[in-house]
Design brief:
Layout lengths: L4 E4 L3 H13 L4 E4 L2 H10 L4 E5 L1 E2 L2 E2 L4 H7 L5 E5 L4 H10 L3 E4 L4 H14 L22 H13 L6 E4 L6 H11 L7 E5 L8 H6 L16 H4 L4 E5 L6 H13 L1 E2 L8 E2 L3 E6 L3 H6 L5 H7 L2 E4 L9 H15 L6 E2 L1 H8 L6 H15 L4 E2 L1 H10 L1 E2 L5 E2 L9 H15 L6 H20 L4 H8 L3 H10 L5 H4 L4
């Protein structure tokens, strides 16, 4: 190789590891630990690439990158940072960095990125990100969220279709909003539509619009979500619940860039970025013929997988304190959260994910009597509502089963919302109610499978088998507050 790699890193141990890894690949490495020496070394010779930390002894590595890219426009820059927030990832992208790696990083992945940067010979591309868009409500420094931040910074530079995957309550719409606000379409509208909340017979009209007289009640032309999102972003939430006929029309629109209003004769062009999201596993739905495979490939250009809250570690503490501050801004009493109380929150399963945590913190802010929320306040608020799989309230199992009318009402709502086809109703209803039933029993018994099996009236081995098949971890329920 004709030129070495410049490494600007003030953590000696990290610098040694990176240097050894790059030298094993036959690359020469020149090291320094501050901005002053960096600038001197850049003047002395040319470099194939530069790796730099953010927080250095004599300044901010990102803030000074602008001068480096101006003086050496063909040198790709890779940023390393322990300041693992979305703001840092966005600043790295805005600075024109070739790639961004939060610490701790995968060393093999870093080496591959360096080799790719050297081989590309491409100048950094500066993202069009204004300062007032930074500070979006995506909180967390966990490694799982770092992967999300990196994907966000990659897609804001382009207009590719994004599919956001994750359990209910993980913040899929927040990610979609972040992509919109940080991208080139942020001056246009952000139009969100929950396809699961629209009746099947109305969804095509809502998405594509309709002409006057297209059907009974269509007394005037209606502009659909696609046209409303012109110049901006269209967010299609819960795409897995879209009826097959609407899926076909959606696929046609994505392929052609044109839509046809219901009852219309002329196609209308649309110009909007498409971001879709679902909490469902689409693979089995494709196999069962309930979701179009070709539509999946059209939507799944750039997938972003959101982690459930239970896999985000200390992010729970950061989110809890964030929501307490938000609650105070919304007019609820201001509180601080003690460290033991924060630790206690981390032990909860949070099956409703971030949405459930936010609702709980707001309730906590209302109920807590002291300025500093302690473990006792957490216990008291937990006892106000017993969470179930959906994050909604449920009756105490020990106090007796829910009333017959309550269960019948819940079943009726489920049938109305899901509308299973004839011949599938029994199997689908059993499948839908089995998971929350098992989770409810595990919650009531603190994860004791023997006791849960006895309460259910089934063999313990049968329960274990079904828990494994449903991927329900009983250990999650063994650590809850009692």
């Amino acid at each position: 190789m004709s030129h070495p790699v410049l490494l600007v890193e003030d953590d000696a141990s990290i610098a040694i590891v990176i240097t050894a890894a790059l030298e094993d690949e036959g690359l020469e490495v020149v090291r320094c630990d501050n901005i002053k020496d960096r600038d001197r070394l850049l003047q002395e010779q040319s470099y194939a690439a530069m790796l730099t930390d953010v927080v250095l002894k004599d300044g901010d590595g990102i803030e000074t990158i602008g001068t480096v890219t101006e003086g050496y426009p063909q040198m790709p820059i890779i940023i390393l940072s322990a300041q693992n927030t979305l703001d840092t990832a966005v600043r790295a992208t805005e600075s024109g960095a070739f790639e961004y790696f939060p610490k701790p990083f995968d060393l093999d992945e870093l080496v591959r990125a360096v080799k790719q940067a050297i081989g590309s010979g491409a100048a950094p591309q500066v993202a069009n990100v204004s300062e007032d868009t930074i500070g979006l409500p995506l909180v967390g420094r966990s490694s799982a969220m770092q992967a999300v931040y990196r994907m966000i910074t990659r897609v804001i530079r382009n207009d590719l279709t994004v599919l956001i995957l994750g359990e209910s309550g993980t913040g899929k719409e927040l990610v979609a909003e972040a992509i919109h606000q940080l991208g080139d379409r942020n001056r246009g509208p952000f139009v969100a539509v929950n396809t699961a909340a629209i009746p099947a017979e109305l969804i095509e009209s809502e998405l594509f619009g309709h002409e006057k007289g297209a059907f009974t009640g269509a007394v005037s032309r209606h502009i659909g979500k696609f046209e409303q999102a012109q110049g901006g972003t269209l967010f299609l939430d819960e795409i897995g619940d879209m009826p097959m006929q609407a899926q076909t029309r959606l696929l046609r629109a994505l392929q052609s860039g044109m839509i046809l209003r219901v009852g219309g004769r002329e196609e209308v062009p649309f110009d909007a970025r498409i971001i879709a999201a679902t909490n469902k596993d689409l693979a089995p739905m494709i196999e069962e013929g309930r979701f179009r495979e070709d539509l999946f490939y059209r939507l799944n250009v750039v997938p972003i997988q959101l982690p459930p809250l239970r896999e985000r570690g200390d992010d729970i503490k950061a989110l809890a304190r964030h929501f307490l501050s938000q609650a105070a801004r919304d007019g609820l009493p201001a509180h601080a959260l003690s460290d033991p109380a924060a630790d206690l929150l981390c032990k909860q399963p949070w099956r409703g994910n971030v949405r459930e945590l936010k609702n709980f913190i707001y309730r906590l802010a209302l109920l807590a009597r002291e300025d500093v929320i302690d473990e006792q306040a957490i216990h008291a608020a937990m006892n106000e509502t017993t969470p179930v799989a959906s994050g909604q309230a449920a009756p105490d199992v020990e106090a007796g089963p829910a009333g017959k009318d309550d269960l019948a009402t819940a079943l009726g709502r489920w049938l109305t919302a899901n509308a299973p086809e004839q011949g599938e109703i029994y199997a689908k209803a059993i499948a839908a109610f089995e998971r929350p039933l098992f989770e409810h029993m595990l919650f009531a018994t603190n994860g004791n499978q023997l006791r849960a099996a006895q309460m259910l009236g089934i063999n313990r081995n049968t329960l274990r088998k079904r828990l494994a098949e449903l991927q329900i971890d009983p250990e999650v329920y063994a650590n809850r507050v009692t």
